[in-house]
Design brief:
The complex is a heterodimer of chains A (345) and B (199). Chain A has 345 residues and is α+β, with helices and mostly antiparallel strands. Chain A has helices spanning 2-7, 12-16, 39-42, 63-68, 140-161, 167-178, 257-267, 274-291, 317-344; strands spanning 94-99, 102-108, 111-113, 116-119, 125-129, 132-138, 188-196, 233-240, 245-247, 250-253, 298-305, 308-316. In chain A, the strands form 3 sheets. A 5-stranded antiparallel beta sheet of chain A has the order 10-1-2-11-12. Chain B has a single domain, classed as Aminohydrolase, N-terminal nucleophile (Ntn) domain (Glutamine Phosphoribosylpyrophosphate, subunit 1, domain 1). Helices cover 35% and strands 34% of the residues of chain B. Chain B has helices at residues 50-71, 77-92, 134-146, 153-170, and strands at 4-8, 12-18, 21-23, 26-29, 35-39, 42-48, 100-108, 112-118, 124-126, 129-132, 177-184, 187-190, 194-195. The two termini of chain B are 19 Å apart. The chains are: A alpha+beta (345), B alpha+beta (199).
Chain lengths: 345, 199
């Protein structure tokens, strides 16, 4: 997919379906849907090779759309083309946090559609590249699509510029790609959890943005135990289809997120060990799945360090629940025995 | 649930914004900076709908920087405010209006300090003091009561503290901390973050 683009491979049926994306004033120069030129050549200086067929927010005045519609559709119903077979629901619990040992990303694995468990074993955490993992929540289909688009764009950037795009840059790119769909039914809330390997641009909105530094690719990841500049090291950024883009140390997204925050806020500290952090993340997801009907089944856990991401074996939360029950009965039993002994002695 | 406030003095403008980034009932971030630096002496404070704020503010920010690159000098606060308002107005009757409320604060060499109030319907007004958000209902009367055109910097900070104390007391939403900045002929200065007492 990405390689196709670099080679300028043109798939003509797709090309015919191109619509001009009228919102994007900055990409206006990069395409002309009636031109037969290779898109690759046209955008020699531009980065925005986003395939136009993705930008189909309904334009009530756009001629191609009208021609295509049959007599069954009245023009006013453009925005609702397909009736949904089941109610959309955004049930999930995902979380991510930064600590001294890197970034932990955890999520449940239930895909719900209204009150039905559509799939009990879904992957809500997807690796994008060796040092970036994305947790998704919202509409499953939208998330899958946008993760794929994001992976494609990151790979294209890497091929074109011979360096990895920074996590902040990735988040901004994703946010800008989602912007045309604001106000439509696209529902995507992704948390990018990753490790920045090399010094990138300062992307703080307060500081005046300098033009991108000539990418000096320093690949010595091992030297960086703890980032000395603010642009290296662990990063956690929340991007939402509403347009929100927030960088922080801990995020939890989804219907189960308040429950997860309750667990995380109490015990999260910077100097947790890796085992403690993993167990905290599991506990948070477990408690959230216990209370939230739309989260459950298993917990997936990823740990991202300077060396890349590593996935923990998927764990069933049913087992965790029974273990928790046993632990409780045990402590209750012990306490009862202690009080009896105390009363006697 | 967000709050912006600005107070203009004889040779400075004091601005403050809360630090909460919320998503429905949750505080996603408690150290969000809602001020965007448009130039050496102009700040844009921006609140409103989730994606629109950063998108619109950064758009204005980059355009002002482009102006500086092309022409060699920066836009004055008054020109910047009018440019911002024009953009808001242009988008207002499009299919994608920006739902943002703004305060633009700046210092001009010739005109002195200026505080400009803009809302999502692209109204623009130069004002001696202004506020946005539900908190504005609670604090505008305090500003009305105690504001003087020749107030000193200390008096301005005290007035700001009074406003924040009122919010802490009467506003149902907890806004724990506020970023405070001051603009004068030397540029933009970060002042100490004000917290609403209960840590």
């Amino acid at each position: 997919m990405a390689l196709e683009d670099i080679c300028g491979f043109q798939d003509t049926p797709l090309h015919r379906k191109c619509f001009p994306a009228s919102h994007f004033e900055d990409t206006a120069t990069s395409f002309d849907c009636y031109s037969a030129e290779f898109r690759g050549l046209k955008k020699s200086g531009r980065d925005s090779g986003i395939p136009l067929q993705f930008f189909i927010p309904s334009l009530p005045n756009s001629a191609p759309f009208n021609h295509r519609s049959t007599s069954h559709f009245s023009p006013s119903k453009h925005s609702v083309t397909v009736r949904r077979p089941f109610p959309l629901s955004h049930g999930t619990t995902t979380l991510g946090f930064i600590f001294q040992g890197g970034v932990i990303a955890a999520a449940d694995t239930r895909a719900s559609a209204g009150g039905l468990v559509a799939c009990p074993a879904v992957h809500k955490i997807t690796p994008i590249h060796s040092h970036l993992v994305v947790t998704s929540s919202g509409s499953g289909a939208d998330c899958m699509l946008w993760e794929r688009i994001l992976a494609r764009e990151i790979r294209l950037y890497q091929l074109r510029h011979r360096r990895c795009l920074s996590i902040c840059g990735t988040a901004k790119l994703l946010s800008f790609m989602l912007h045309p769909f604001k106000g439509t039914d696209v529902c995507v809330a992704l948390t990018l959890c990753g490790w920045d390997k090399e010094a990138g641009n300062t992307d703080s909105s307060f500081i005046t943005d300098n033009s991108s530094s000539a990418g000096f690719s320093s690949q010595d990841v091992s030297a960086m135990a703890y980032p000395s500049s603010p642009n290296r090291g662990p990063k956690l950024i929340y991007v939402c289809s509403d347009g929100a883009r927030l960088q922080g140390d801990v995020f939890s997204v989804g219907s189960g997120s308040p429950y997860a925050y309750g667990v995380l806020d109490g015990r999260l500290r910077w100097n947790l060990s890796k085992e403690e952090a993993v167990s905290l993340a599991r506990e948070a997801v477990f408690r959230a799945t216990h209370r939230d009907a739309y989260s459950g089944n298993n917990v997936d856990l990823f740990h991202i360090t300077a060396q890349g991401w590593s996935r923990r074996k998927r764990e069933e939360l049913k087992e965790e629940y029974y273990r928790d029950m046993e632990r409780r009965t045990k402590t209750v039993g012990e306490r009862k025995r202690e009080t009896v002994l105390y009363a006697l002695g | 649930m967000e709050y912006l406030v600005g107070i203009q003095g004889p040779d400075f403008v004091l601005v403050a914004a809360d630090n909460v980034a919320a998503s429905s009932i949750l505080q996603m971030k408690h150290d969000q900076d809602k001020m965007f630096k448009l130039s050496e002496k102009i700040l844009l404070l921006c609140v409103g709908e989730a994606g629109d704020t950063a998108q619109f503010a950064e758009y204005i920010q980059k355009n002002l920087q482009l102006y500086k690159m092309r022409n060699g000098y920066e836009l004055s606060p008054s020109a910047a405010a009018n440019f911002t308002r024009k953009n808001l107005a242009d988008y207002l009757r499009s299919r994608t209006p920006y739902h943002v409320n703004l305060l633009l604060a700046g210092y001009d060499e010739t005109d002195g300090p200026g505080l400009y109030y803009m809302d999502y319907l692209s109204s623009l007004s130069k004002a001696p003091f202004a506020a946005h958000g539900y908190g504005a209902f609670l604090t505008l009367s305090i500003l009305d009561q105690h504001y003087k055109p020749d107030l000193t910097r200390e008096e301005a900070v005290d007035l700001l503290k009074k406003c924040i104390e009122e919010l802490r007391k009467r506003f149902i939403v907890n806004l724990p901390s506020f970023t405070v900045r001051l603009i004068d002929k030397e540029g933009i200065h970060d002042l100490e973050k004000l917290s609403s007492g209960a840590k």
